[in-house]
Design a protein that fits this description.
By secondary structure, the protein is α/β, with parallel strands linked by helices. Helices cover 33% and strands 28% of the residues.
């Protein structure tokens, strides 16, 4: 399998604060992996470092075979990276469909609006509603849908279940599995381990800015107690 994302000895800083302390990570084409850990462990910072949204970084990041540490964030996006931040970034005054149409095309092969509406029927129903009038779950669906139009094949999804009702969380799990079947590669930052557990090929636990444990799907049953201890479940 082709390596889509490779990170070696990644360190990152916000100003004087040293946040990432040597992240090592490799993701193959079509895999779903999680970054698990307590708040402040460095999970979101890892995604931001991949996208070029941290200040100082050292180490090595390779995306689709291209070294990307020296690239600007817009150049990283054009390698085929879609980032869905925790804050969602929905424009409240634009309609649902205007929000959806806003991002540029980064690469060929992006999903059509009809395909997106098939995946997210709620968004089709609310396509003319202002973004600020959408529910939290609908805003999250829109935030994910928006990056699917761009042609990005590596999706970085940050805390997509945060604060959402169980029925919406279940729907988002179906979406992740659907995207995996379509050949997307996904890095999922999650606090909700019950949501993440059945979705991922591998789980990476981050503590103090470093990967301290990697558990594959077939090791999950024998590693649950250790994971619960690491994650404070």
């Amino acid at each position: 399998m082709t390596t889509v994302l490779k990170i070696s000895d990644l360190h990152g800083w916000y100003g004087e604060s040293h946040i990432l302390h040597g992240i090592d990570l490799e993701v193959k084409d079509g895999e779903v992996i999680t970054l698990l850990g307590r708040n402040g462990a460095g999970r979101t910072s890892t995604l931001r470092a991949i996208c070029g949204l941290m200040g100082k970084r050292t180490g090595h990041i390779e995306i689709f075979g291209k070294a990307s540490l020296s690239l600007q964030s817009h150049e990283v996006a054009r390698l085929g990276v879609g980032y869905c931040p925790e804050e969602r970034g929905i424009f409240a005054s634009l309609s649902c469909e205007q929000n959806l149409m806003l991002p540029p095309t980064l690469a060929p092969g992006g999903m059509s609006v009809d395909e997106i509406y098939d995946m997210f029927p709620n968004l089709k129903e609310r396509r003319n509603s202002p973004g600020g009038r959408l529910s939290g779950g609908e805003q999250q669906m829109l935030a994910i849908a928006r990056i699917l139009r761009t042609g990005a094949k590596l999706l970085l999804l940050d805390e997509i279940t945060e604060g959402l009702a169980p029925v919406i969380v279940e729907k988002l799990g179906e979406v992740v599995l659907n995207l995996k079947k379509r050949g997307f590669t996904i890095v999922l930052v999650e606090q909700n381990f019950r949501f993440a557990a059945p979705l991922a090929d591998r789980h990476h636990v981050i503590e103090h800015g470093k990967v301290v444990k990697v558990v594959s799907q077939n090791e999950l049953a024998t590693s649950t107690s250790e994971l619960n201890e690491l994650l404070g479940v």
